[in-house]
Amino acid sequence: MANAGAKKRREENLKHMRFLQILVLAANGVYILGRVVIFSSSVTWKHYVGMMLTSGAYQLSYNWIKDLSLPTYDDKGDLTDGGYDLKTPGLCSYLHDLLYITAFVQFGSLISDKVWYTYLLIPAFGLYKLWTELLYPYFFLSQKAEPEDEVSRKKREKAERKANRPKFAKARR
């Protein structure tokens, strides 16, 4: 039998997934209606490639979030876990960002085709995270520090003890 927290998370995840589903369907519907039906004279092959690109981004991120949000049940059919908390930072928030950027690009591209350049934020952020989390620490921070000699160790320990001492202020009279 699941606790109230798991049931609450399951309900929150269901509501959130409904919201994301409406967002994806609305963005695709508005894009198709606006670009293909209303502005059909300005449609080029690039717009169809863009539609396939955004559809792939939606498919990837939405299905991944959906898989994370699925609750687990035991053999008797009782709820054991309400699913992943979709509000936690990390991979799940990056997937949400991908969905929101894709929806923004689709809505904005009805006004100007230059909005597609916003999609360059995704690989730029990926390169930034790759550099700051993996490459920079590996190449520049992995050098081993020299062993500390006795004098510098004693100085460091004395400074740490002095910094950890409680400091009292005189009371005013």
From TrEMBL:
Mode of membrane association: Multi-pass membrane protein
Ranges that cross the membrane: 20-43, 116-136
Superkingdom classification of source: Eukaryota
Region of interest (Disordered), residue spans: 145-173
Compartment(s) where it occurs, according to its Swiss-Prot or TrEMBL record: Endoplasmic reticulum membrane
UniProt entry keywords in alphabetical sequence: Endoplasmic reticulum, Membrane, Transmembrane, Transmembrane helix
InterPro entries in the record: SND2/TMEM208
GO cellular component: endoplasmic reticulum membrane
First-listed, main subcellular location of the protein, grouped into a coarse class: endoplasmic reticulum
Bias (Basic residues): 164-173
Family, similarity comment: Belongs to the TMEM208 family.
Protein name: Transmembrane protein 208
Organism (species): Riccia fluitans
